[in-house]
Every structure is written in C-alpha cells, then in structure tokens.
Amino acid sequence: MTKGWIAVLALIAADARADVFSFETPSGNIQCSVGLEVDGSDIRCVIIDRSGPPAAPRPAWCASDWGHVFFMRNRGLVEMSCEPLDRSRHAQETAEYGVTGEFGGLTCLSSRQGLNCVNEDGRGFFLSRGSQRAF
Q: Pfam families per the record (predicted)?
C-alpha cells in the first residue's frame, strides 16, 4: 500500500463529517471516488477504456455511454449509469497493485487482474479493461 493512500485512509476514518477521496489504478484506466459519511459510504468508479460486453445490457432509454460507470453504497446493489464518459484523470492517489482499501463498509482490492470492490452485503463489481462484472 502506498504511504499516501494509508495516510488519506487514516484521515478519513478519524473525521466524522462527509469526506470524498479519489484514487486510480496504476494504469490510470479506472478512476474512483469514495464518499464517507457517519451513516454510510459509497463508491463510484469509471473504467475509461473497456472491451467486451457491458456488465449489464444497455437499457432501451439509454442514449449515452453505457458500461463505464459503476456505483454502490456500503449496502445494496450495484448501479450502472447512463452518462457521457468522462475521460479525465484526476485522482488524488494511486492504489498500487496488491493494495486493499477499506472505506466504511466497502473494500476494494487493486490487482494486475483489475479492481474488485465489495460492500457489506457481499455485492460488488470487478473492473478490468477486458471484463466488467456486477454481482
């Protein structure tokens, strides 16, 4: 785990107000932001370049980009968003491969295979360039 990521996690855990923390995988292809509040947490991850079928079929009403944005709270199902893809890279920290981050009920593991995030209900998502899954 990078020292910077450890320091930010320690600061977030110590503060009872809402905080937002962002990180990216070493490739820069997956960008995530985490929101932490007293009563829960959430994570939103964007996979910029992806291939293969999306994790869920595109809804008929979706006329924008699909299969790039994943969102979940510390409890409940994973949601995917229909929205224009934001290719900007603006993360505060890098989640090096082999690093596990815990964010108030959410746990994410960054590996060479991809990013795997799970909530307290055992729901989550796996993101890599070649495969994206919501479970």
A: DUF6636
Is 74 strand, coil or helix?
coil
**Total count of domains within the chain:** 1
* Distance of alpha carbon 111 from alpha carbon 66, whole angstroms: 24
SS (H, E, C) 36-56: EECCEEEEEEEECCCCCCCCC
Domain extent at residue 13: 3-134
Q: Per-residue pLDDT for the chain (135 aa), expressed as one digit of tens each?
A: 444 444 344 444 444 456 888 999 999 999 999 999 888 999 999 999 999 899 999 999 999 999 999 999 999 999 999 999 988 877 889 999 999 999 999 999 999 999 999 999 999 999 999 999 999
